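agent> fetching stored inputs for the pyridoxal-5'-phosphate docking request
agent> found them:
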Amino acid sequence: MKIAGRMAKVSPSATLGLTSKAKEMKAQGHPVISFGAGEPDFDVPAPVKEEGAKALASGFTKYTPTSGIPELREEVCKKFHADQGLSYKPENVVISCGAKHSLYNLIQVLCEAGDEVILPTPFWVSYPEMTYLAGATPVMVPTYQEEGFRLTAERLRDAVTPKSKVVILNSPSNPTGAVLSEKDLRELMEVIVEKNLICISDEIYEYYLYDGSKHFCIASFGEEIKKRTFVVNGTSKSYSMTGLRIGYTAGDADVIKKIGILQDHSTSNPTSISQKMAVAALRMPMSYRADVRVLFEKRRDLMISLLKKSDRLKPFVAKGAFYTFCDIEKTGLGSDVFCNRLLEEKFVAVIPGKSFGSDKHVRFSFATSEKDIEEGIGRLSEWLKRL
Ligand SMILES: *Cc1c(COP(=O)(O)O)cnc(C)c1O
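agent> prediction call returned; pasting tokens
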């Protein structure tokens, strides 16, 4: 069958691909340990579950406004004010079916053929594909492990052409775990304003921060940058609600309205019950976030210390998110071969860096138990010794 040309450049998601291969092997009875997961392993907070049960029992199961229930849009405004001191009105906020959907719709509304989207590389797998699907062109700008995988203002400036329209920032980053400092962001802001770019800031990992790192939202640095920034976030990572599919975007009201129109004719509203649950999630106390942080920092430390024992691995010490991006160049294997062999020979699943724009890295998720981290990295070390 002849398939539409717009699908030609779009590849399947490697993260989802390898995770499903690992799940299949597990189902066949193999002792699989997966570091593939792009989601937290803890349960949804109890008050959030209760809100979901209440919504279901009370029959809150009909269509809602396409852009989200007013209660949730208001709660999102309160969250931005409390966390970043940002003032948005509900008309600046649209709720979508996960942050991935938020990003997809935003890129559809902003970008078209002839536009360039600047992507600091390594990038999250879906950014290039979303760009292609809008007919626009991704422009990869390298960042380096020696520089903490941070995009510098200088490299951003060098990447700008008359066609540049958008730059996507993702701090804390998936896959690298890099966190942009306030200084980094202020320097980037100058280039963004000077070159008249639009900034998409994907802040889905904002609560996963280590070594005392702080999260800054570029939009909070003043009106000039705020009006050209779209902040994307959601409840998937912060509250372990990946399957409930709630994401949101805040920014210019005209663009937000267009996203609502796009949703009118595609998904309609995000799931009614999930929206109620998201309201409850955003009302969770600050202490909840601190607990999560402590748990994940311990796991990160354990994973890094075990990986560092092998002289052929050079793990990057993540400052945020829940991934270890690890240089595997000294093994002499490409990332696809590395991951497929490790899964087939030792039943350990990790994600090839190739899909994030670096074939000499692989990504380990540490959103898993300390017991699994010890067992899995142990198997990896054994395997490396015989390689
Ligand atoms: C997980 C993830 C998202 C999307 O999360 P949703 O489940 O769609 O809300 C967006 N950006 C990055 C960088 C992610 O890792």
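agent> quick read of the result: The chain has two domains: 5-44+287-386, 46-282.
agent> awaiting further instructions
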